[in-house]
């Protein structure tokens, strides 16, 4: 059916889109205060970028990417996440040649072929930040604090910050051996995907959502027991920095995140109000990703927060969000001779910074007033033939039910004085 949207996508309509405007305004405010500049990357990229950057053992690459061949016989993928794209932009546009660290943020749609559920869709939106050029543990704490600060400004409560260290290429081989030794005797009980991951990346088995795999892995070795001295010291400094900020956190020894590029710090933020899939955002450090994508060794860290899930959590926690936008003034025409002056007045009001609208269906005066009430307009300006002969219009307060005669030349200034402060 051509009039049905694809499964897992949404139309964001008036009354709903205002919530997104509000969220985007908060995003721009906090990014300005924290020193982040916006970057906008293409919605599709060459597939190879995600194969290398995200990792070929991840659920995203194995099962969830929207990939197609274009007319030039090139493999193209709608971006399933934006970190790899921002890394590509950082390299291609030579941002590494400027002052470091480089602090960037983005806000836009991502695409994954996933099972739609509460707050989780096939086209979804993320707000994320990326920082390149510093390995300072205090920066890890800043990124996590920024995410929690953002949620706090929105009024969200009952959130948990889960943190872990997922090690580095120096300590991962030791964990890999221990995990393979642990899972080898229980291979038959693992799901097909995890059996394939056993050789490629056994750490990914710990992130499997299959009940049987989670049960088998409950006593599996964890990375915190295998960290090298550098990773252990880095993680301790991250915790110390979080403590300095008074930020509460929980060390989750089993947290690994769903992307292969993470090193050192990984974190996730959960809310109890949105069902079984409680994560509303997360991120971590990815010190090898720039190099994987063909650049020099540059450390990086960032987060991505799901905007649909943020709005869902706000709604479930009873936080007020803006509703449908309504005109401040509705211009009502009484008589055909007044129509031209009403039309001119409409645009004068708008030029004066007052949101205004009028009837375009030829309704009667009574029907226009009734419709003005339905629009939610605070004032109706009635332009009538008799009033115009005196150089006046009637301004009706729709809430109070009172009206006054105002000189036509003064009506814009009069209504500007009545505007509610934002």
Overview of the molecule:
By secondary structure, this protein is an alpha+beta fold. It has two domains: 17-171 and 227-316, Bira Bifunctional Protein, Domain 2 (BirA Bifunctional Protein, domain 2, 2-Layer Sandwich), CATH 3.30.930.10; 329-418, Rossmann fold. Helix content is 36%, strand content 22%. The protein has 15 helices and 16 strands. It has helices at residues 17-34, 47-53, 59-64, 83-92, 137-154, 172-183, 192-200, 211-216, 229-244, 289-292, 307-316, 339-351, 365-375, 385-389, 411-418, and strands at residues 37-38, 44-46, 67-69, 75-78, 102-111, 123-132, 159-165, 250-251, 263-271, 279-285, 300-306, 329-334, 356-358, 379-384, 392-397, 402-407. Strand 15 and strand 16 form a beta hairpin. The longest helix is centred in the first third of the chain and has 18 residues, at 17-34.
């Amino acid at each position: 059916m051509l009039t049905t949207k694809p499964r897992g996508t949404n139309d964001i309509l008036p009354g709903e889109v205002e919530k997104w405007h509000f969220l985007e305004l908060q995003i721009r405010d906090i990014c300005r205060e924290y020193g982040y500049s916006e970057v906008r990357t293409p919605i599709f990229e060459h597939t190879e970028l995600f194969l290398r950057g995200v990792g070929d053992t991840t659920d995203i690459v194995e099962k969830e990417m929207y990939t197609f061949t274009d007319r030039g016989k090139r493999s193209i993928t709608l971006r399933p996440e934006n970190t790899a794209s921002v890394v590509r932009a950082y390299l291609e546009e030579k941002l590494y040649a400027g002052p470091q660290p480089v602090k960037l943020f983005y806000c836009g749609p991502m695409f994954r072929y996933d099972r739609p559920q509460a707050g989780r869709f096939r086209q979804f939106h993320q707000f994320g930040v990326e920082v390149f050029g510093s390995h300072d543990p205090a920066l890890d704490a800043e990124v996590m604090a920024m995410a929690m600060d953002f949620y706090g400004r929105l009024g969200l409560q009952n959130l948990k910050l889960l943190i872990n260290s997922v090690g580095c290429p120096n300590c991962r081989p030791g964990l890999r051996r221990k995990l393979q030794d642990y899972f080898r005797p229980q291979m038959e009980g693992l799901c097909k995907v995890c059996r394939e991951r056993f050789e490629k990346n056994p750490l990914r088995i710990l992130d499997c959502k299959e009940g049987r795999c989670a049960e088998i892995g409950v006593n599996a070795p964890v990375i915190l027991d295998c960290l090298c001295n550098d990773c252990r010291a880095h993680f301790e400094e991250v915790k110390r920095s979080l403590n300095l900020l008074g930020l509460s956190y929980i060390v989750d020894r089993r947290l690994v995140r769903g992307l292969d590029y993470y090193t050192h710090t990984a974190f996730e933020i959960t809310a109890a109000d949105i069902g079984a899939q409680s994560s509303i955002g997360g991120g971590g450090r990815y010190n090898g990703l720039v190099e994987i994508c063909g650049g020099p060794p540059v450390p990086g860290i960032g987060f991505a927060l799901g905007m649909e899930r943020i709005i869902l959590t706000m709604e479930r926690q009873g936080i007020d969000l803006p509703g449908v936008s309504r005109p401040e003034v509705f211009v009502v025409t009484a008589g055909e001779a007044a129509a031209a002056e009403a039309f001119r007045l409409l645009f004068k009001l708008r030029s004066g910074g007052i949101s205004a609208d009028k009837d375009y269906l030829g309704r009667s005066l009574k029907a226009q007033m009734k419709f003005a009430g339905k629009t939610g307009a605070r004032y109706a300006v009635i332009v009538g033939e008799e009033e115009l002969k005196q150089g006046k219009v009637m301004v009706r307060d729709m809430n109070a039910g009172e009206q006054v005669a105002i000189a036509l030349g003064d009506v814009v200034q009069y209504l500007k004085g009545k505007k509610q402060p934002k």
